[in-house]
From TrEMBL:
The keyword Magnesium belongs to this UniProt entry's keyword annotation: yes
Organism: Sediminibacillus halophilus
Protein name: inositol-phosphate phosphatase
Listed Gene3D superfamilies: 3.40.190.80, Fructose-1,6-Bisphosphatase, subunit A, domain 1
PROSITE patterns from the UniProt entry: IMP_1, IMP_2
Catalytic activity from the UniProt record: a myo-inositol phosphate + H2O = myo-inositol + phosphate
GO MF term set: inositol monophosphate 1-phosphatase activity; metal ion binding
GO terms under biological process: inositol metabolic process; phosphatidylinositol phosphate biosynthetic process; signal transduction
Length: 287
């Protein structure tokens, strides 16, 4: 039976009982990062109705505000003061230039879903993933305006606020699945064969798109969506959510089933392993 390379590596790690970070060290990191995330969220909520300074980055749809920058600076200053030996990979330029995943790396998106932040003032999140030697140890995704914190430590499950999330459904027909997918990928494009994606859209129960990769991964972990498929995400978009999904028995890979490189842009497929196999074998054809 077909098994993705990422799943094979995941099973090898589980059999080896990989323990990259001591539990007491991870707990200290988790408690500290959680406190900072909640504090940053409170700052954003307090300032939500203040005038925004908005700029563009790579294109007119790639927005950045002074709140993105101030929030990232808030985290980087605290990390460098409290954990000077750790590295930082972040969206707005206050982190480090990294070419290796060795050591402890904080991967930060200060406001994931900036367009939602600007236009809706909701449906955005703070996302932090803490990795050691390439393995996700901690994931935090904070839905700021709804005051909902998704949190996970490796090997200890995932939580929505104080409620532990159940393991993902193991056997789910595609006809009953809700898939998070931007409609762009059903149109002619240079990334993925759109006719197969159109067939997938007709097959599943429904599709959704929320405009925040971090929240979309959190929704997969929570089980209110069954799969997330997209063709281009940065490390800070996915680092926290990957830990969450892994802790509820899901798997996050590139769209072709190969392992994610946490330092690079990636295509992304996040779901339970049964759905992943069906999608990779029958519906995903990269160009």
């Amino acid at each position: 039976m077909w098994t993705s390379p990422a799943l094979r590596q995941h099973r090898v790690n589980m059999k080896k009982g990989v323990l990259v970070m001591k539990q007491e060290d991870r707990q200290k990191l988790f408690d500290t990062a959680k406190q900072w995330v909640l504090e940053a969220g409170e700052k954003i909520r307090t300032a939500i109705d203040e005038p925004l300074r908005i700029d563009t980055k790579s294109n007119s749809n790639d927005l950045v505000t002074h709140m993105d920058q101030e929030t990232e600076r808030f985290f980087t200053e605290k990390i460098r003061r409290e954990f000077p030996g750790h590295s930082i990979l972040s969206e707005e330029g206050f982190g480090d230039n990294l070419d290796s995943d060795k050591g402890v790396i904080w991967i930060i998106d200060p406001i994931d879903g900036t367009m939602n932040f600007v236009h809706q003032k909701r449906n955005f999140a703070i996302s932090i993933g803490i990795y050691q030697d390439g393995i996700g140890e901690i994931g935090l995704i904070y839905n700021v305006m709804d005051d909902v914190l998704y949190a996970a430590q490796r090997g200890e499950g995932a939580y929505r606020n104080e409620k532990k999330l159940p393991q993902l459904k193991r056997e789910l027909p595609l006809e009953e699945a809700i898939i998070i997918l931007n409609n762009f990928w059903t149109c002619p494009n240079h990334k993925i064969e759109e006719t197969k994606i159109q067939s997938l859209v007709k097959k599943v129960r429904g599709t959704r798109s929320y405009g925040s990769a971090a929240l979309e991964l959190a929704y997969v972990a929570e089980g209110i969506a069954d799969c997330y498929l997209t063709m281009k995400l940065a490390p800070w978009d996915i680092a926290g959510g990957m830990v969450l999904v892994n802790e509820v028995g899901g798997l996050t890979t590139r769209a072709d089933g190969s392992p994610i490189n946490i330092l690079e842009q990636n295509t992304l497929l996040s779901c339970n392993t049964d759905i992943q196999q069906k999608l990779v074998e029958e519906y995903i054809e990269l160009k």
